[in-house]
Amino acid sequence: MYVFELPEIGEGVVEGEIVQWLAGVGEFVDVDQPLCEVMTDKANVEISSPRAGIVKALHGDPGDIVAVHTPLVDIDTDAGPAQAKAAPKAAPKPAPKAESKAPPTAPSAPAIPKAAPPQAAAPTTSSKTLATPAVRAYARDHNVTIGAVAGSGKDGRVSKADIDNHLQGAIRAPAAVAFNAVASPGYPRADETVKIIGLRRKIAEKMVESYRTIPHFTYVEEFDATRLVSLRSALKGAAAEKGINLSFLPFIMKALVRVFKDFPTVNANMDEKAFALNVRGEVNIGIAVDTPQGLYVPVIKNVESKSLLQLAHEMADISERTRAGTAKIDDFRGGTFTVTSVGNIGGRFATPIINHPEVAILGVNQIHDRPMVINGEIVARKMMYLSPSFDHRVIDGAVAARFVAALKAILENPEILLVEGL
Fold it and tell me: Can you tell me the distance from the alpha carbon of 58 to that of 72, in angstroms, rounded to the nearest whole number?
């Protein structure tokens, strides 16, 4: 019997969380076949089998924390594929029962008489009436029991026309019936417990640490993005010719570089043990990336030395690798400042939580058309709110306000960013 222990996955990693098992007890696994997914330091890592054989035991369940060099999987290396346990055949699903347990209801209101339909009730059947959710809602709106309607569609599927035919000649219920409560489709339903594991747990731990440690404050300002929108539109074609999608974020990142020169303490990390501020000499900006697995923050390194097009290309590359799960752990380390953007989804502004141990984060929000007074005249302008959060231990409100004002001045006159070239 070979006892496979959790190997050292990365430098300084002492434990990992089991996200999911990719092999089961009784299954034959080959060399290098994935056994499980383990989460460490906000990165999913596939653990592969070093030996061939039959899995005899799995040590831990999804969500369990396993220390490095402790047993993970027991493998019988003397057994071959012939001894593997056959996969169980799925049992046929029983037909749905005609009767279901009624959900708890609120205290009954005075009864309102209902008219009986002219047709006799349909015979009890063990199969569920076929109908789309829209048709079921239509039946409820007309006080029709859909099981009593004869369906004219394939396999007896009920349509709205079938319900209309059912209602022809029926005695109408009193108008007061319209005030009866109508249940929402799909409710009530059973409660569900969702175990918080993997990336979701890492995000939760990080947010709690940040909010417990850092006294946050958010400063909201708006700026006129009309010229920024025009500049980006003018450059998009040239970028597209090089296969690059030029978004607004590279402009904002380059504007931040310029502002950090006058406000260096915003581009910094907090050393909690020494209680000292580490003012960084390079600009490494994390960008929040929404993925099917949750929120990741890959870092664009040395923003100060890259052009707008280089930043746009690198952002697309690292975002794609993050969503595909192929980004490396180093891609998420070394950040000095974070930008989070939800403008493409909507919302005017948010109050983001700082990505510890950084001391600030910038919320970039939706660009929206709004009437503004310019030189005494009302004109349509494209406006955007900036909503950065700061660590109040090291950044005062006045510093934050001046920082945002300087950022606003550049973004309202973005052509200055082209001095450094594309």
Answer: 6
